[in-house]
Structures are given as C-alpha cells and as structure tokens.
C-alpha cells in the first residue's frame, strides 16, 4: 500500500506541473509587470514626441525666415509708400537764334553754322580755271544743253553783280574743280535744313533771313539771323531773267534727279521755300565754312 501511495503522489506531482506549463516546450518569455508595460508605453510616446520635435523646430525656423523681410518706408498711418521713379525731361527746346559775331570777316554765325553774308561772285574755279560767262540767251541755252558750267549777271548788268552776286547754272556748282573758294564749301540740302531748324522752322525762317531793304512792295524781313537774303532773281533755261526784287533763290549742292537739283528760295512771304529745279537754271550760290 505504501508503494501505491508513492506512485499516486508522484503522478499527482506530474499532473500539477503539466497544468502550469513548465513542461510545455514553448519559449519562456519573461512576463512584464503592469508598471513595466506602462513604462514601455511612456518610452514609445517619448520617442514619437522626439520624432515630432524636429518638424516643430523646422516650422519655427520657417516662421522666422518669413518674418525677416526688408523694411519698407511707411507713412504715419502704417501704409507702405512706393516712391515714383524720377526721370529727366528729354524734350528739345528750340531757342530763338539771332546773328552773332564771327571771327571770320564777311560771315555770320547762325546756330553752329558759319555762313557767308553775301552771294558768291567769282568767275574762276578753285584751281584757277575760268568759268565761261554766258551773255546771250543762245550762249546760256547751249551751255545748259551740253552740261557745261556758265555764269552771268542778272540782265547781264555788272551793277547787279555788286549787289546780288553772280547767277550760276548747276553744272558750275557740281564741277569737280570746285566752285567754292579755298576755306569754303558749297551748302548742301542738309545745311539748309539745319539752318531752317535753327531759325525755328520753315514757316518763320524766311522772315528772319530776308534783308531789311530791297524787297518789292515793302515785303522786307527782319534779318535777325544776319543771313542778309536779297531778291536777286534768277535765269530760266531759255535765257530769260525773272523776278528781280521779289524772289531770291540759292542752289544747294544736292542733286535731286538726273536733270534737276534742290534749291531754296525766299519770296514775298515769311517762309523759306524748298524746290527742285532744272540744272540749266541760273541761281545764286551761298557758301558755308566747315
């Protein structure tokens, strides 16, 4: 009986141990207490919080960068004032031009130009060659038709030459031997345009250029420019003389077409005219220094 009790006791011990799992064969993980789990949860929470902090710091840094802006000028009310950019005026003011003294005798300074105060009155080219005088209508027509240089006095009267200078066809103006004396040049269309500009425009320039005497019907000018423009008339292609006392006309050195060239004229108005005339015509010439 004692042997049977011993067997029953040992068997009960095995059953007790089996029911508590000590012989189950599973891996025995250490069991954490409730306080340990709470501590682990707190650690996880801290870790998450630590991960969130950098974003919070970045946001704060961004906020600082946004606040840091250059200060703008403000009014007393706190509104931003935008100052308008200041620009300089580029308008051109044309000042009245009057005659000024020139260091060269027989000249006048108008704006930046130095003009002769008398019409050209030479009978030789710059190199010394003679310019043919055409007294008769036939001589004048022949020179023009052949493209040869020629000059004349108005009505072939030397007294008119002393007052108005000579009349030249454009072939004399354009001759390569040089019609202008040494130190002078023939005025081109651009020179006349500049003169017109200096005198305030085409509509008023003529009155400032016309002489104070010698014009028919008392159509004098003020001559405030000092140009001293007189009505020396002109000679047409067939040799006829016209308009002494009422028109003064001057060649430019600028060609217009094969048969014409540009000229400028004063008449009984206040303006300075511009036209294109046949090269055979006889007109005055005014030189300019450059």
Structural account:
The structure is a single chain. It is built from seven helices and eleven strands. The chain has a domain at 107-289. The longest helix is centred in the N-terminal third of the chain and has 34 residues, at 34-67. It is an alpha+beta fold and 290 residues long.
The overall pLDDT, averaged over residues, is 77
Which ranges are low-confidence, i.e. pLDDT below 50, for 5 or more consecutive residues? 1-94
Number of strands: 11
Helix content: 25-40%
Structural class: alpha+beta
Largest sheet: 4 strands, antiparallel
The 3D shape can be described as globular
Query: Per DSSP, what share of the residues sits in E-state strands of 2 or more residues?
Result: 5-15%
User: Rg to the nearest angstrom?
Assistant: 55 Å
**How are the strands of the biggest sheet laid out side by side?**
1-2-11-5
Oligomer: single chain
Element string (H = helix, E = strand) = HHEEHEHEHEHHEEEEEE
The termini sit apart by 158 Å
Count of alpha/pi helices: 7
TL;DR of this structure?
This protein has helices at residues 2-19, 34-67, 137-146, 158-164, 170-173, 189-198, 202-209; strands at residues 107-110, 113-116, 151-152, 167-168, 185-186, 234-235, 241-242, 248-255, 260-266, 272-278, 287-289. It contains seven helices and eleven strands.
How are the SSEs ordered, and which strands pair?
Layout: H1 2-19, H2 34-67, E1 107-110, E2 113-116, H3 137-146, E3 151-152, H4 158-164, E4 167-168, H5 170-173, E5 185-186, H6 189-198, H7 202-209, E6 234-235, E7 241-242, E8 248-255, E9 260-266, E10 272-278, E11 287-289
Antiparallel strand pairs: 1-2, 2-11, 3-4, 5-11, 6-7, 8-9, 9-10
């Amino acid at each position: 009986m004692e042997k049977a009790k011993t067997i029953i006791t040992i068997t009960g011990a095995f059953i007790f141990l089996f029911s508590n799992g000590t012989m189950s064969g599973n891996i025995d993980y250490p069991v954490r207490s409730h306080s340990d789990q709470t501590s682990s949860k707190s650690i996880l929470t801290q870790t998450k919080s630590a991960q969130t902090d950098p974003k919070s710091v970045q946001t704060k840094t961004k906020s600082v960068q946004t606040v840091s802006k250059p200060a703008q000028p403000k009014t007393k009310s706190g509104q931003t004032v935008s100052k308008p950019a200041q620009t300089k005026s580029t308008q051109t003011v044309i000042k009245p031009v009057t005659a000024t003294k020139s260091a060269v005798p027989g000249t006048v300074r108008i704006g930046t130009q130095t003009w002769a105060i008398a019409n050209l009155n030479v009978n030789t080219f710059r190199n010394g060659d003679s310019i043919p005088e055409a007294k008769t209508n036939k001589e004048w027509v022949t020179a023009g038709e052949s493209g040869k240089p020629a000059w004349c006095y108005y009505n072939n009267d030397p007294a008119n030459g002393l007052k108005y200078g000579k009349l030249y066809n454009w072939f004399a103006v354009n001759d390569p031997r040089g019609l202008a004396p040494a130190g002078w040049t023939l005025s081109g269309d651009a020179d006349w345009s500049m003169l017109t500009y200096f005198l305030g425009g085409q509509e008023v320039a003529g009155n400032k250029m016309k002489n104070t005497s010698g014009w028919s019907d008392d159509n004098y000018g003020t001559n405030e420019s000092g140009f001293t423009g007189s009505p020396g008339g002109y000679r047409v292609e067939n040799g006829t003389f016209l308009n002494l006392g009422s028109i003064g006309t001057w060649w430019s050195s600028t060609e217009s077409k094969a048969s014409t060239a540009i000229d400028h004229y004063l008449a009984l108005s206040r303006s300075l005219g511009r036209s294109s005339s046949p090269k055979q015509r006889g007109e005055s010439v005014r030189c300019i220094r450059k």
